[in-house]
Amino acid sequence: MVGFMVPSTHQNYDLIWENTETIFRLIKNFLHPNNQGKHTEHILKFFNVFVQKYVVRNVREKNIQKKLNKKKEDEENEESEEEDIYQDNDFSTHE
Questions:
Q1: What is d(CA 5, CA 58) in angstroms, rounded to the nearest whole number?
Q2: Phi, psi at residue 17, to the nearest 5°?
Q3: What is the pLDDT of residues 16-26, one digit of tens each?
Q4: Residue 95 has pLDDT above 80, yes or no
Q5: 8: left (phi over 0), alpha (psi -120 to 50) or beta
């Protein structure tokens, strides 16, 4: 789960980690081997769904970011090509 958390550059990084740590602290004792019961299965299901949803979200956000980066790169290449065309056709000289 830790490997899929938002990067430290994310604006809500600290808040997300604080809330995640709080959840772990709250349920830590319930997951201890000496304290197993009916609640253990529910907690494990919660974490299973949580991780699955987070992984899906993470993949989706990475794909969106890749598309945005590609679009930006394409726009920069297009601008560069336009500059090259302008330079190749030196319009500033009059014959």
A1: 8
A2: -70, -40
A3: 778 888 888 88
A4: no
A5: alpha
